[in-house]
Write a structure and sequence with these properties.
The complex is a heterodimer of chains A (96) and B (465). In chain A, 43% of the residues lie in helices and 4% in strands. Chain A has 96 residues and is mainly alpha-helical. In chain A, strands 1-2 form a two-stranded antiparallel sheet. Chain A has a domain at 1-44. Chain B contains 16 helices and 13 strands. Chain B has an eleven-stranded mixed β-sheet with strand order 1-3-2-6-8-7-12-13-11-9-10, with helices on both faces. In chain B, a hairpin with a 2-residue loop joins strand 4 (141-142) and strand 5. In chain B, helix 10 packs across helix 12 and helix 10 crosses helix 13. The radius of gyration of chain B is 21 Å and the shape is globular. Classes of the chains: A mainly alpha (96), B alpha/beta (465). Chains A and B meet through helix 1, helix 2 and helix 3 of A and helix 10, helix 11, helix 12, helix 13 and helix 14 of B.
Chain lengths: 96, 465
């Protein structure tokens, strides 16, 4: 993976990084991907083809869409952590 | 004078009940120990301001004859477990000033059990690391040798207990983050079955692996904290009930050892495992060799799935809703600046790597394959647990290393080789202090079948008999 690819990924991930860091990461990623790429060996195993996954823990976890809490009871606590606010709104820069 | 370096939770509970000392005196002793020792070690980021008030409350209850499993016992929390009204930063700059609006379920349960919620401990940023060197607030030193790391990511919790500053602590374990620091600091560390303890209020790192668990001096103390914390929770849909994993086998003292896999450890560590096997055999255990073709791929699987889930979980930190905001030229530039400055190097590395393994064209080769291999490993473990009650491994390849010694990211990742199989399979796993290497503690791990924490505690107690 080269520097330009790392910079593109960083852009997708919305993280500003320097050229020097991208360079360093590209070398590190080569080593890491070389190691984790070993798993492709396993995928050739016969046993993988007849795997039946045991999904014991899979169950519907959604509650019924009812009995919501009273509107606004958590607003103040949550807004206390907002970097910028205006009244009961979180303030951000102009979008359009 | 209370000697915190040898006192266990069990014996402290007895002493509190017998009025040998009060919770206030015990809590004050912990505060004094932190003041005395932690300037060098840096296990703590903060002692909560109301600890002595909490202790007075506990003393009142003790006087009334109320008996609760942790009544009056100060317990420390890793900095990624939330307490209502207190800071929780995951040792990251991006959350440096974050105050949690809610309690985690783990803290609710500790409070119901009478524990003093003592303070928050240092860790690798967002629990990403194996040495606590990735904390935005500086590393934690190993109390047994301050030139060495305390392990990670829950290194502060380990150092707080091993350094005689509190009697117990909570950490989180995604790939060994409780067990490796416990082993480096000569403690018991326990990661229960995935889903056994609610993670509501634990900051997510890799949601399909993360699990909360205790640090303690003894197996009995670890079990005590585990019993307090366990159980299903409507606020965490991944929590499990007893019915989910039916028992596959009755306990008959059989331990499996994947010897081929253990060859990756240092000579001392291998010898130490053989010593542990001898001790189990002398206690009437049958130890058999396990053939495990896929176990050695656990770490590779782990380091694909982990960055993938991180890249998704860390997307919530955008400088809009909470946490740090660094202003840029426009709205979207705010994201780039906030995340570039707010996240440390390892967090940035993992998010970008995760973005890669999930990107179009590479998804199948990395993430898809890793998920397939993961279910294969899981299947092999389930099969093995029809024959054996427990699997024995060393906890770490070697004893605690020096600061800066694992300089490349891959070298640091390889540190987790023996701890990740339990996370990849979801199985419960304990580390027990056993043996030494260069005067530093080593640990052995016992992995149990899904839902079989009982076997782990039974064998661990017999081991120290």
């Amino acid at each position: 993976m080269n520097k330009a690819e790392v910079l593109k990924l960083a852009k997708l991930a919305r993280i500003e990084i320097s050229d020097a860091e991208a360079e360093e990461l590209s070398t590190e990623f080569e080593a890491i991907l070389g190691y984790v790429g070993e798993i492709k060996q396993v995928s050739k195993l016969e046993s993988l083809k007849d795997k039946n996954s045991e999904d014991y823990a899979l169950k519907n976890v959604l509650r019924a869409d009812e009995n919501a809490h009273d509107s606004g009871i958590h607003t103040e606590k949550i807004l206390e952590n907002a970097p910028a606010r205006e009244g009961d709104y979180i303030k951000v820069k102009k979008i359009l | 004078m209370i000697d915190l370096s040898t006192l266990t939770i069990q014996s402290a509970r007895e002493a509190l009940k017998a009025k040998k000392f009060s919770s206030r005196e015990l809590t004050q002793a912990c505060i004094d120990a932190v003041k005395d020792k932690d300037g060098n070690i840096h296990a703590f980021l903060e002692i909560f301001k109301n600890v002595l008030d909490q202790a007075d409350e506990a003393d009142k209850k003790i006087k009334e004859g109320i008996d609760l499993p942790l009544l009056g016992i100060p317990i420390a929390l890793k900095d990624n477990i939330t307490v209502a009204g207190e800071h929780a930063s995951a040792s990251s700059k991006i959350l440096e000033n974050f105050v949690s609006p809610t309690n985690s379920t783990a803290v609710n349960k500790l409070q119901e059990a009478g524990a003093i919620i003592f303070g928050r401990t240092n860790c690798d940023e967002f629990a990403m690391g194996s040495s606590t060197e990735n904390s935005a607030f500086g590393p934690t030193k190993n109390p047994l040798d301050q030139t060495r790391v305390s392990g990670g990511s829950s290194g502060g919790s380990a150092a707080a207990v091993a350094g005689g500053m509190v009697l117990g602590a909570l950490g989180s374990d995604t790939g060994g983050s409780i067990r490796q620091p416990a082993s480096f600091c000569g403690l018991v560390g326990f990661k229960p079955t995935y889903g056994r303890i609610s993670r509501s209020g634990l900051m997510a790192m890799t949601s399909s692996f993360d699990q909360i668990g205790p640090f303690s001096k003894t197996v009995e103390d670890a079990e005590l904290i585990y019993e307090v914390l366990r159980g299903p929770d409507s606020l965490d849909s991944t929590t499990i009930t007893e019915e989910i994993y039916p028992k596959q086998k009755n306990f008959d003292k059989t331990i499996g050892v994947p010897r081929m896999f253990i060859n990756k450890a240092s000579e001392n560590t291998k010898k130490n495992v053989e010593e542990a096997i001898k001790r189990f055999e002398s206690l009437g255990y049958k130890v058999i060799d396990l053939e495990f073709p896929t176990i050695e791929y656990s770490l590779a699987v782990y380091y694909v799935i982990v960055p993938a889930e991180i890249s998704s979980n860390m997307a919530r930190f955008d400088g809009v809703k909470y946490g740090l905001r660094v202003g840029g030229e426009n709205g979207i530039d705010d994201y780039f600046k906030t995340r570039g400055v707010g996240f440390g190097k390892e967090v940035r590395r993992r998010i970008i790597l995760g973005t890669y393994v999930l990107s179009s064209g590479y998804y199948d080769a990395y993430y898809g394959t890793a998920e397939n291999v993961r279910s294969l490993i899981r299947k092999e473990f389930r099969e093995a647990f029809k024959k054996v009650d427990l699997i024995l491994l060393p906890t770490t390849p070697s004893s605690a290393f020096k600061f800066g010694e694992r300089s490349s990211p891959l070298d640091m990742y390889l540190e987790d080789i023996f701890t990740v199989p339990a996370n990849v399979t979801g199985c419960p796993c304990i580390t027990l202090p056993f043996g030494k290497e260069n005067d530093l503690p080593l640990g052995i791990e016992l992995i149990g079948d899904l839902g079989r924490e009982d076997n782990i505690f039974k064998a661990s107690k017999e081991f120290y008999g």
